[in-house]
Amino acid sequence: MKDVAARAGVGLKTVSRVVNGEPGVTPDTERRVQEAIEFLGFRRNDSARVLRKGRTASVGLVLEDLADPFYGPLSRAVEEVARAHGALLINGSSAEDPDREQELALALCARRVDGLIVIPAGYDHRYLEPEIRAGVATVFVDRPAGRIDADTVLSDNFGGAREGVAHLIAHGHRRIGFVGDHPRIHTAVERLRGYRAALEDAGLDVDERWVALGSTSPDRVRSAVETMLDAPEPVTAVFAGNNRVTVTAVRVLAERDRRTALVGFDDIELADLLGITVIAQDSAALGRTAAERLFRRLDGVNEEPESVTLKTTLIPRGSGELPPAANI
Amino acid sequence: MKDVAARAGVGLKTVSRVVNGEPGVTPDTERRVQEAIEFLGFRRNDSARVLRKGRTASVGLVLEDLADPFYGPLSRAVEEVARAHGALLINGSSAEDPDREQELALALCARRVDGLIVIPAGYDHRYLEPEIRAGVATVFVDRPAGRIDADTVLSDNFGGAREGVAHLIAHGHRRIGFVGDHPRIHTAVERLRGYRAALEDAGLDVDERWVALGSTSPDRVRSAVETMLDAPEPVTAVFAGNNRVTVTAVRVLAERDRRTALVGFDDIELADLLGITVIAQDSAALGRTAAERLFRRLDGVNEEPESVTLKTTLIPRGSGELPPAANI
DNA sequence: TTGAAAGCGCTAACAT
DNA sequence: ATGTTAGCGCTTTCAA
C-alpha cells in the first residue's frame, strides 16, 4: 500500500480510501491510484485490516465430519448465510472427539472469528466462556451446549422418534428394535426417549434386548440387528437411530427372507427408490437457522440465549408400513 | 499480552516466549507468566501473529458445492492433511459460477491463505497469476486450470467412461445413451470422449440423439432419458455422466417395464443395494493428493507444475450387466 | 535469561 | 480533497 502511494504520488490514506471505495477522492486521483494498484499487482492484506478493525468477517463451524451427508447441506447453508453477510466460513471436523472439538474451537477463537457455530462432541463447553465473554457470538446446533447457557438449534429428536415408532405400532408391531448411536450422544438419548415414550403411549413394555446403543460402525450395527432378528421372539420392526444405522440396517434386512419393517431417523439419498420410511430432519434448515441467529447477535441484538427446536417429518415409503411378518 | 506482561512483572518478549514455548525462560518466571495468563484469560491473537510472520497456517478450498456428496469427503480429506500440518481450512462454494469462484479465490488470497485448492468453475485462471507469483501455492483438482500452468489432480474421466461403456458393449448393447453434465464442464466433455472412444473401439457408430449434455437438474435428466427410451429405436443402456444424473436415471428407469441397463459415473450411497453398476472415483484420494502436493510446495519443494491422474474403478453390481431388452 | 524498540500493513482520528 | 500520526498485538532484532 505504501508502494502504491509512492508510485501514485499520493498519501497512504488516499490509497486506503480508493481501495475501500470511501468518498473524498477526485476521479483523477482515483485513476492514478488505480493505475498504480494495477501496475504493482497490489491486493489489500486483510490480516492487517483485521488487526486494525477487530472484526475478521469470518465465522467458524465445528462439526463432526464434513464427509457425512448430514453435515454437507448444513455447512453449505451456514456458508450461504455467511456469504450474504460478507463473511467467510472456516470449517473443522471434530471427529466426535471432545478434545479435538475444543482444540478446534479455541483455534478458531485465536483467529478471532466473529462467531462460532458448534455441533458439540463434548458435554462441557465452559472452556468457551471466556471467549463468549470476550464477544465471540456462539450458537450450538444439533446437540445442546454442555454446562453453559447459549443459543441452541435442535431437531425434535424426541418427537420425531416417538412419531416414527408410533407409526410402526399403528401398523401392528409390538416387538420393535431400536438401534442407535452411542449413549453419550445427546441425539441418541433423545431418540431413545422418543422410542420409549411411543411404546408407553401404546401401553407396551420395552424388552431391553430390543435396545442397542453404541457405535454406528457397520459391524456393530449388523450384529445388533442380527441379534434382534435371531432371538427366540424376534423383533418385527426396527427403528434405526440415524442415517448410518439405517444404511446398514437396510443391508441386513435385505438379506433376510422374512420382511422386517424399518423406519430410519434422517433421510438418505435414494431412500425413495428403496422404499425406506424415514423421519427426515432438515439439516440445511438447522444450519440456516443457526447462522441467522449468529448474525443477528453479531448485528448487536442482545437477547437472552434461546433454544429453537425444528420439527421433523415422517415420510412413509413402504418399509415402515409393512405389517408384522408371521414369525418363526 | 501487554497486560499479561504487566501483571507478571516481566517484559513483553518473555510472555511471547512462554506463549510460544520458546526456550530461555526460567521455570519460575514461566510460572508467573502462566498465572497471569490464566488470571486474565489471555489468548494469543493470531491475526497479529499472522501479520508479523507472514504465514497464516490456513489454506483455502474453493469447490462447487459442499452439500454435494462428492465434495464432502474431498473436503474432509483436505482438512485432514491440513490438520497434520497445523493448518486450518477455509471452504467456499462457487455454485458452479466462474465469477463467484474468482471472488472467493481472491478473497481467500486477501486473507493471505498460504495455499489454495481450487475446483474450477471457470476456464480462465489468469486472475490468479499475481497471487501465485506472490507465493500462494495453488493446486487445481477435479478439473484442469484454465490458461495457466499449475499443479493439477484429476480423475481418469476419459478412461473411466470408456471402460464403463465398453462394459455395456461387452454385455451386448449397441444403442447406448450418454446423459452428462453441461459441456462447459471439463469432466463432462472427457467422459463423453470416453464414451465415443469405447463405441469407436467396438466399431459402432454414435447416433447423436443418444447424447444429451446439459444441466443435471432432475427435470432435464428425466426428459433426456425419457426421450431416449421413447425413441423408435430406443437405447438399451444408459451411461450416466455423474452422480446426480445417475440418481435421476435410476428413478426414471425404475418406472419402466422394459429393463434398461445402466452404468453411472461416481459411486453413490446404497448403490450396492439397488444393484447399480458404477465407475467409482475416490474423491477423498483426490483431495488428499491435492493437499499433499500443496503442502509439499509450502515446504519449499520447487518442481515444475505437474498433473496427476487418479484411476477409476468399475464396480459391477447388476444394472450394468443386464442384457439388451427385447425392444418394442 | 531477559527486555526495549522497531515494524508487519492497515485504518481511525485528526490535521491541513 | 488529501495527508500525517498513532497504534491494532504480535514477533524480530539486538542489546543488556
TrEMBL record, chains A, B:
HTH lacI-type domain ranges (all copies): 1-53
Keywords attached to this entry: DNA-binding, Transcription, Transcription regulation
Family annotation (CDD domains): HTH_LacI, PBP1_LacI_sugar_binding-like
Highest taxon of source: Bacteria
Pfam families found in the cross-reference section: LacI, Peripla_BP_3
SMART domains noted in UniProt: HTH_LACI
GO molecular function: DNA binding
Full protein name: LacI family DNA-binding transcriptional regulator
Organism from which the protein derives: Streptomyces chengmaiensis
High-level lineage: Bacteria, Bacillati, Actinomycetota, Actinomycetes, Kitasatosporales
